[in-house]
Write a structure and sequence with these properties.
By secondary structure, the chain is an all-alpha fold. 79% of the residues lie in helices and 0% in strands. It folds into 2 domains: 185 residues, no CATH class; 194 residues, I/LWEQ domain (Up-down Bundle). The protein starts with a helix and ends in an 11-residue tail after the last helix.
Length: 380
């Protein structure tokens, strides 16, 4: 068996399968539960907890994406693994609202089982592929250690629970850094598509949240205007990701090979897409309040969500655009800074007015940056 044979276990460039799209549905539900969690704990601490729950959800989804990117979904055993993981993830999603309370054990146990399933899947599928088995050892032992710490944390309460959850997440991040030593086989087009689809999940949940918020009130002109402004904000974040940044990054991704491709996948997609998801979901949380109470002023948590969410999203896209293309999108950085400044300065604006300000800042940045040509690749 040659190194080349080992590297192309997943076959030639392919698209996401219907099973992978089916698999994503449980994450749609789980993200909805995170939004609900933050709505019921509308504090800065609640936002932080929601962001951490998103990290755990993102991490499970991302590890499965790495696995199916390499081994595909064609065999019966892989399909059974994924279906079992789906069912367990559904349980984990149900436990999200009480993940730091009475449901911590259920959440932690289901999280550990989801992680154990994917570890077993990659171990089994890589048994005849020495390069991938070697890559396995750079990440999965540390990964399962992190998952085990989260599992243990679920049986504690209060600060001990929070500390163990945080330590487990930190071990996972260290494992991702260490995984850069491995020669991971990555189908670039498929990997970029899968990560783009998760961004669609986050944006789609935002749209659904707007619809649910609007349906919970008696609509008048102010509510409809707030709905239009909010949708424009979500559309702007879609534009910020998919118009230039994602296609150009994917093009650069496909040019790389070997360890460089694996590290690109880790940095640009696995690590730097997570804060983008947090920014989108945070924005969705704030926009739900805007739609239901358009004439009220937002408290600091609402302003952090409505302005801080897109600021985080824009800053993150800037970071991974630089990592992918060595291009600094100054307009997005300026917009992110302006949005952060709006948090303390916009306290007197109505919810609709504050949302309109945030959307206008994003729009100006996107329009302005189109005046500068995007490079075809990092080397151009």
């Amino acid at each position: 068996m040659t190194d080349q044979t080992d590297q192309v276990r997943a076959g030639t460039e392919r698209n996401a399968t219907t099973l992978e799209l089916f698999f994503d549905l449980v994450y749609v539900f789980a993200i909805t539960e995170v939004v609900s969690f933050v709505h019921h704990e509308p504090t800065i601490a609640g936002l932080a907890k929601g962001a951490f729950l998103l990290f755990l959800l993102w991490w499970t989804w991302s590890i499965y994406t790495w696995t199916t990117n390499w081994c595909g979904t064609g065999s019966v055993s892989i399909r059974l693994y994924l279906l079992a993981a789906m069912g367990t993830t559904l349980v984990m999603g149900i436990a999200v609202p009480e993940a730091f309370g009475d449901g911590s054990r259920l959440f932690a146990v289901s999280y550990f089982v989801v992680r154990a399933l994917v570890t077993g899947l990659y171990w089994f599928e890589s048994k005849d592929y020495p390069i991938q088995r070697a890559a396995f050892w750079t990440f999965y032992p540390l990964s399962m250690t992190g998952a085990l710490v989260v599992l243990i944390g679920g049986f504690f309460e209060g600060r001990a629970l929070l500390a163990l959850f945080a330590i487990g997440g930190a071990i996972d991040l260290f494992g991702a850094i260490n995984a850069g030593r491995g020669a991971w086989a990555v189908d670039a087009a498929h990997f970029a598509e899968r990560n783009g689809l998760f961004i669609i999940i986050a944006l789609g949940e935002s749209v659904v949240g707007l619809g649910l918020a609007a349906s919970s009130v008696d609509l008048d002109v102010s509510h409809v205007l707030a709905l239009v402004i909010s949708f424009a904000g979500i559309a702007a974040l879609w534009w910020a990701y998919f118009d230039h940044a994602a296609p150009k990054a994917e093009h650069e991704f496909t040019r790389l090979a070997g360890r460089d491709r694996g590290r690109f996948a880790r940095d640009v997609y696995t690590l730097l897409h997570y804060p983008l998801v947090v920014g989108i979901v945070m924005f969705a949380v704030g926009l739900g309040v805007v739609v239901t109470h358009p004439g009220d002023t937002l408290d600091v948590v609402g302003r952090v969500a409505v302005a801080g969410g897109p600021a985080l999203a824009l800053a993150t896209v800037t970071a991974w655009t630089y990592r992918a293309l060595r291009r600094v999108t100054v307009e997005r950085l300026v917009a992110a800074l302006a949005l952060l400044l709006a948090i303390p300065l916009g306290a007197e604006l109505s919810a609709s007015g504050f949302a309109a300000l945030s959307v206008a800042v994003i729009g100006v940045a996107l329009v302005t940056e189109t005046m500068r040509p995007w490079p075809a690749t990092a080397s151009s």
